[in-house]
Amino acid sequence: MALAEPNGNRRHRQHARPPVGASPGTLIADPSARQSALNLTLISPDT
Fold first, then answer.
1. Which residues make Cβ contacts (< 8 Å) with residue 6, sequence separation at least 6?
2. List of residues 6+ apart from 26 with CB closer than 8 A
3. Which of 3, 16, 21, 23 is deepest in the core (most CB within 10 A)?
4. Which residues contact 18 (CB under 8 A, 6 or more apart)?
5. 42: left (phi over 0), alpha (psi -120 to 50) or beta
6. What is the pTM of this model?
7. What is the average pLDDT value for the chain, to the nearest integer?
8. 36, 17, 39, 20: which is closest to 28 by C-alpha?
9. What is the CA radius of gyration of the chain?
10. CA–CA distance from 44 to each of 4, 5, 41 (Å)?
11. CA-to-CA distance for 18 and 29, rounded, in angstroms?
12. Is the predicted pLDDT of residue 5 greater than 70, yes or no?
């Protein structure tokens, strides 16, 4: 059986909660999160 980690090594995360009355499964974006980026490479026989 694995031993529990001491409280000093755990990282506590505060989860954003949807407003009261929101539909189940409503996602809340973290305002301090980094901006998403997408790099797309198209490969075809011509190029």
1. none
2. 18
3. 16
4. 26, 27, 28
5. beta
6. 0.29
7. 77
8. 17
9. 21
10. 53, 52, 10
11. 10
12. no
Q: What is the mean pLDDT of residues 23-42?
A: 88
Nearest to 17 by CA among 9, 5, 25: 25
| DSSP secondary structure, the chain, as one string | -PPPPPGGG----PPP-PPTTPPTT-----TTSPPP--------S--
CA 27 vs CA 3, 9, 18, 23, 31: distances in Å: 34, 29, 7, 10, 12
For the chain, what's the residue count?
A: 47
- Report the pLDDT value the prediction gives residue 43, as an integer from 0 to 100: 92
